[in-house]
Amino acid sequence: MIIWLASYPKSGNTWIRLFIDALLNKKNSNLDLNNIKIRQFPLRYDFTKLNLNPDNINEFVSNCILCQDKINLDNSVKIFKTHNSMWRAGENSFTNDDNTKGVIHIVRDPRNVITSVKNHFSRDDYDDAFQFLTNEKQSLGSRINKKDTDLPTVVSSWSNHYNSWKKMKKNYLLIKYENLINNTFEEFNKIVNYLNENLKIKFDINEINNAIKKCDFNNLKKLENENGFKESAKDKSGNIKKFFYLGPHNNWQSLLDQKIIDKLEHAFKNEMLELGYL
Question: How far apart are alpha carbons 158 and 178 in whole angstroms?
Answer without folding.
Answer: 16
